[in-house]
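Hi Y.,

Following your request, here is the sequence exactly as I used it, all 65 residues.
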Amino acid sequence: MTKRKQITGVVLLAAVIGIAWTVWNHTASTTRIALVNFQPFQTTSIIKANTDKFIRYKEIPLENV
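Below is the corresponding structure, written out as tokens. Let me know if you'd prefer a different format.
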């Protein structure tokens, strides 16, 4: 009976970790900001001014939108 409880505990723990991972990815993970049709000198200053590790920038030319 204890073996069954251990297996159930491991499965339950894996389910909780999976749910927590999904919630983290949808609510609190890194914010991605697209810089569309900016000049390179503008994007460089914006990206260098970022000190927050939860914000990422991506440069996108207007042709790719």
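Helices lie at 2-27, 40-49.

Thanks again,
Q.
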